[in-house]
Automatic annotation (TrEMBL):
Protein known as: Diaminopimelate decarboxylase
Keywords attached to this entry: Amino-acid biosynthesis, Decarboxylase, Lyase, Lysine biosynthesis, Pyridoxal phosphate
Record carries keyword Lyase: yes
SUPFAM superfamilies linked: Alanine racemase C-terminal domain-like, PLP-binding barrel
GO MF entries: diaminopimelate decarboxylase activity
Organism encoding this protein: Salinimicrobium flavum
Described purpose of this protein according to its UniProt entry: Specifically catalyzes the decarboxylation of meso-diaminopimelate (meso-DAP) to L-lysine.
Length: 411
C-alpha cells in the first residue's frame, strides 16, 4: 500500500477513513507463531477489543486463531464471524453472574477474575471448566492506565488469596482447566515478564487438571523509528524453553495461550484525514483536520504517539505543526511535530491506527464514525460504511412535548 493507494482510498471512500492492511496482520500473526515454534500446543486468541470489525475476526478465523473477548457482545461478534465457541475465551472484569452464565451456555471458555463470582459460579455449575485470572502483582506495562498487574489493580485474583481460592475450588468441586495472567500493555522488559510467568507456574502447580496456561498479552509495538518494542523472538525462545520444562514437571503437555491485540493489528492500520484549515497563531501553526478525538482518542486518553505523514506532499520541506481536530474541546493529536509542508486539502496519514482506534470511536459532537476499509491482495474493500444521519437518530424515542400554545388553549 503506497501513498498513491492511500490517496485513492480517500477519493473512493471519502475522509476521514480507516484502512487496514491484511498482509501486515498475517505477517505479525506468523511472527508470533514462529517465535513459539518449540511449544507443541500454542493458542493465539486475538483480543477482539483492539479492532472488532467482523471482517477482521473472519481473517483471524481463517488463520486458525481463537478469540479473546471481554463482553457477551464481543462473544456474539465472534460467533457471527463463524468462530467455533470452543476457540473463544471470555475474560470479563466486574460483569454480572448472569452474563457469565449466558456466555458459558454458548460453550465458550470462561475466565473468572474474582473470588465472589468464582464461588457463585462454581456452586451453581461445578461441571463447567473454568480458567482463573491471577494477579501476580508484577507491573510489566509501561503506562499506568494500561498496566493491570500491579498491587492496586482491580484485575485478577491476588496471588496472596490462593489459599482462599483453593478452598472455593475444593468446596464447590469445580474444575479449573486454565490459569491466566495479563500484566498490562507495553511490556518493555522480558525479564520482568518471565518473572511474572514464574509466579504463574508456581500457582499452576496447585491445580491437577489444567489444560492451558494463558500469559495474556501486552506486547509493545514501535510507534516511531528507533522505538523500543517487545522482543518477541527472544521472549519466544526463553518462555518456550521454560514452558516445555514446566510441562515435563507437571507430567502433561499443556497449551500455551496468548491474547494479543495491539501486536497483531496496530501496525496494519492507517487513519487518513483531510486538512480543513491551516491556522497560524502567534506561537503555533495548527493543521486542523476533519476528525477529532471522537475518532481516535488515544493521544488525548493516554498520551499515545501516532506518527503523522503528509502523504499529499511527502517530499516537501519539513515544518513544525500542531495537528488538532474539530471537536469543541482541546483535541490535540500531535504538538509541534515536524511534518512536510501542509496545505489545506492535503491528506494526512496516522500510523498505528489498527488497535484501539476505531474500536474506541464515538459519535461525540454528533459526528459520524468513519468507514473502515480492508486492503487485501492489492485491492481496497469496504468493510464498514460511514455512518449516516439515520444512524445518529436510530433507536432514539422522541418525546412529544405539548406546545405552550396548545397548553393555553386546553385551559
Ligand atoms: C485481559 C486482556 N487481554 C489482552 C489484552 C490485549 O492487550 P494488547 O492489545 O496490549 O495486546 C488486554 C488489553 O487491554 C486485556 O485487558
Amino acid at each position: 500500500m503506497n501513498n498513491q493507494d492511500l490517496i485513492n482510498i480517500t477519493k473512493e471512500f471519502g475522509s476521514p477513513v480507516y484502512i487496514y492492511d491484511s498482509e501486515r496482520i498475517i505477517s505479525q500473526y506468523k511472527r508470533l507463531i514462529n517465535a513459539f515454534k518449540p511449544v507443541r500446543n500454542l493458542k493465539i486468541n486475538y483480543a477482539v477489543k483492539a479492532l472488532s470489525n467482523l471482517s477482521i475476526l473472519r481473517l483471524f478465523n481463517s488463520l486458525g486463531a481463537g478469540l479473546d473477548t471481554v463482553s457477551i457482545q464481543e462473544v456474539k461478534l465472534g460467533l457471527e464471524a463463524g468462530v467455533d465457541p470452543k476457540k473463544i475465551i471470555y475474560t470479563p472484569n466486574g460483569v454480572s453472574l448472569e452474563e457469565i452464565e449466558e456466555v458459558a451456555e454458548m460453550g465458550v471458555q470462561i475466565n473468572i477474575d474474582n473470588l465472589s463470582i468464582l464461588e457463585q459460579f462454581g456452586s451453581r455449575h461445578p461441571g463447567v471448566p473454568v480458567c482463573i485470572r491471577i494477579n501476580p502483582h508484577v507491573m510489566a506495562g509501561g503506562n499506568t492506565n494500561i498496566s493491570v498487574g500491579h498491587i492496586d489493580s482491580k484485575f485478577g485474583i491476588s496471588i496472596h488469596q490462593i489459599p482462599h481460592l483453593m478452598r472455593i475450588v475444593e468446596n464447590t468441586g469445580m474444575n479449573i482447566n486454565g490459569i491466566h495472567m495479563h500484566t498490562g500493555s507495553d511490556i518493555l522488559d522480558i525479564e520482568v515478564f518471565l518473572y511474572a510467568s514464574e509466579i504463574l507456574f508456581d500457582t499452576a502447580k496447585n491445580f491437577k487438571d489444567l489444560e492451558f496456561i494463558d500469559f495474556g498479552s501486552g506486547f509493545k509495538v514501535p510507534y516511531k523509528e528507533g522505538d523500543i518494542e517487545t522482543n518477541i523472538e527472544e521472549l519466544g525462545e526463553k518462555l518456550s524453553a521454560r514452558f516445555n520444562k514446566f510441562c515435563k514437571e507437571y507430567g502433561r503437555d499443556l497449551s500455551l495461550a496468548f491474547e494479543p491485540g495491539k501486536f497483531l493489528v496496530s501496525e496494519s492500520g492507517k487513519f487518513l484525514v483531510k486538512v480543513n484549515v491551516i491556522k497560524q497563531t502567534t506561537s503555533t501553526v495548527f493543521a486542523q483536520v476533519d476528525s477529532g478525538f471522537n475518532h481516535l482518542i488515544r493521544p488525548m486518553l493516554y498520551g499515545s504517539r501516532h506518527e503523522i505523514h503528509n502523504i499529499s506532499n511527502p517530499g516537501g520541506k519539513e515544518r513544525f505543526y500542531s495537528v488538532v481536530g474539530y471537536i469543541c474541546e482541546t483535541d490535540t493529536f500531535a504538538s509541534n511535530r515536524r511534518i512536510t509542508e501542509i496545505k489545506e486539502g492535503d491528506i494526512l496519514a496516522f500510523d498505528n491506527a489498527g488497535a484501539y482506534c476505531f474500536s474506541m470511536a464515538s459519535n461525540y459532537n454528533s459526528r459520524f464514525r468513519p468507514p473502515e476499509v480492508l486492503w487485501h491482495e492489492g485491492k481496497a474493500h469496504l468493510i464498514r460504511q460511514r455512518e449516516t444521519f439515520e444512524d445518529l437518530v436510530h433507536g432514539q424515542v422522541p418525546f412529544q412535548f405539548e406546545t405552550q400554545k396548545a397548553k393555553k388553549m386546553s385551559k
